[in-house]
Amino acid sequence: MNADAADLEARRLAWWRWSAFALGCGAFFLSFFHRVTTGAIAADLQHEFALGAAALGTLGATYFYIYALMQVPAGVLADTLGPRVTLTAGVLIAGVGSCAFGLAGGFATAAAARTLIGFGVSVIFICTLKLHANWFAERRFATAAGTANVAGIFGALTATAPLAWLITMVSWRHVFVAVGIVSVALALAIWSFVRDAPVAGTPRVGTGDWRRALAEVAANRATWPTFWMNVGVSGAYMTFIALWAVPFLVHVHGMEPVAASRIAALILAAFGCSTPALGWLSDRLGVRRPLAIGYAVIFNATWLVWLALPAPSTGGVLVAALLTGFAVPGFTLSWSIAKEVNPPARAGMAIAIANIGGFLASGVLQPLVGWVIDHGAGVVAGGSADAYRLGIGVLGAWSVIGVVAALRLTETRCRNVWAERNSVRS
User: Residue 205: is its pLDDT beyond 70?
Assistant: First the structure.
């Protein structure tokens, strides 16, 4: 191949790489937007559908139930059919679900529509990281994943203060129908401008071999600490930011919903700054486990800060929000570790098993916290305010699981240790 042909090929591959990256970021934005929306529109949903705290928690959790159930199938689909086909279908389904949510006439219809949204976006995370695994080198994976995660955080940010402000101007129903239409356009763009890998022959699990491949990933003891870290850290964080942060600030610190949404946005903004920085630092230093442990410990300590704050405490709330957002991203390193302790062709399945933990936990915690708040309101001394503190205390206790799991993670030094070990044996 002459120099001109080589340069043309390099440019072609770069275009496909960054096209996949950019459209994956767009899908991340969509997924995170839907994850957080119930917090910003909680008052509207409670008023329109006559919901208590526990019912609101159940409505918010429907997304997480189906999302959690779909993580392993999403990993299988990404490793067999490929991320392009799977991602296109998922975004299209999410668009239909968003339109249905905006048109819902009652609680049951809204819950079904939100379940459909969760079903569609459930494949986005796995497929996007599978594309990263195919298009970026091992020592760039955490950086690429962390940077793409920023797009998701922008989606979550959009679903906090901006959405809370927007629904004072137009109906929340119109917002979700519009998001559904944009999602359909995004699905068409993914189908047209994304390719699975630089080389057509990139290793892929055969459709007839996926059960054995999945069983081998699940049998790998090094996979499971990544799952439990997501259970403890990601589960507690998503429960808080996706639903209970805004009501907590309203009931405990007397904030207006829009002001409380700004605090939620600050948490997400800190998360958005910290996540790519941590990914870059991990890739740069060539370590995963020490950073994951340190961040998990700090995150666990932030719940004590939230619970210790006197009310109202605007300055203290700002500090707690920044600490929370800074400390959360430790769990994102579990995705890299899950991929690096398993065969490269099974990256989707490995990441899926790690990621499922946070969504299973959030599906349990969202209604559990609501139940604690409902049943604590008439028991604890401070009434509603202390009931909300009790609910948040559940999240603090739960996050200890993440610290214990972080201590059990395998240090990969940013290399695929499974491939190295098996190449030595062969």
Answer: no
DSSP state of 409: P
What are the CA-CA distances from residue 314 to residues 161, 162, 250, 260, 262 (Å)? 17, 20, 12, 10, 12
pLDDT at position 426: 37
DSSP 410: P
Domain map of the chain by residue range? 13-198+207-421
2 vs 389, more confident: 389
DSSP at 408 = T
Return the ∠ at Cα 58 (arms to 224 and 297), rounded to 5°. Answer: 40
| pLDDT reported for residue 32 | 87
What is the DSSP track for 228-278? HHIIIIIHHHHHIIIIIHHHHHHHHH---HHHHHHHHHHHHHHHHHHHHHH
% residues pLDDT > 70 (the chain): 94
List phi, psi (to 5°) of 311.
-115, 135
Rounded Cα distance, 105 and 49, in Å: 9
> Among 3.10.180.10, 3.40.50.720, 1.20.1250.20, 3.40.930.10, what is the CATH number of 13-198+207-421?
1.20.1250.20
Rounded-to-integer distance, Cα 268 and Cα 328, Å: 10
Q: pTM of the full predicted structure?
A: 0.77
Mean pLDDT over 158-163 rounds to 82
Output the average pLDDT for the chain.
88
Whole-angstrom distance, CA of residue 139 vs CA of residue 194: 23
From the list 99, 105, 133, 178, the residue with the least C-alpha distance to 345 is: 133
